[in-house]
Amino acid sequence: MRIDKPTILEFFMASVPQTIAEKDLFKRLEVDSDHRHEFKRLLHELIAAGEIVELKKNRLALPERLNLVIGHVQANRKGFAFVIPTQQGKPDVFISADNLGNAFHGDFVVARLLRSTSGKTAEGEIAKILQRGQTRVIGAYEHHGQYGFVVPE
């Protein structure tokens, strides 16, 4: 069987109710040992694009099945932010300053929905940063014994 990205996504939509281990995915899609390297490359591309998420212990899932949203952080000067979903038609997710973690404006992230009330913006927290939007940070370096960090301006 030819395995490509659409085939993998179709399998997830049709056959995976929650999560699946990577090794079980190999078995269910009948990926032979000659094609495992290519299959893993496709999986990692899908993960990097946010089309599937990788959880603990090499388990994989569709984000929407786990109440997760994939998108870019749009930060506000007051400390809160919104995750703008990559999937068209999905509403923005409000992220309070306490739930932002170490995500910055422009980062490509996975957000976990905490609550969604009718008529109001959904609220969530940053679960994982998939890709940084900025590779340089301007701020003040603070030295603390054996370690230090930059506090962004």
Description:
There is one protein chain. With 153 residues, the protein is α+β, with helices and mostly antiparallel strands. The chain has three helices and ten strands. A five-stranded mixed β-barrel has the order 4-5-6-8-7. It is globular, with a radius of gyration of 18 Å.
Short description:
By secondary structure, this protein is α+β, with helices and mostly antiparallel strands. It has helices at 5-15, 22-28, 36-48, and strands spanning 20-21, 53-54, 59-61, 68-75, 81-85, 93-95, 108-115, 122-131, 139-144, 147-152.
Order of helices and strands: HEHHEEEEEEEEE
Task: Specify the overall morphology.
Answer: globular
Can you tell me the residue ranges where pLDDT is under 50 for at least 5 consecutive residues?
none
Radius of gyration: 18 Å
The biggest beta sheet is recorded as: 5 strands, mixed, barrel
Total strands: the figure is 10
Strands, helices and their partners?
Blueprint: H1 5-15, E1 20-21, H2 22-28, H3 36-48, E2 53-54, E3 59-61, E4 68-75, E5 81-85, E6 93-95, E7 108-115, E8 122-131, E9 139-144, E10 147-152
Parallel strand pairs: 6-8
Antiparallel strand pairs: 1-3, 2-3, 4-5, 4-7, 5-6, 7-8, 9-10
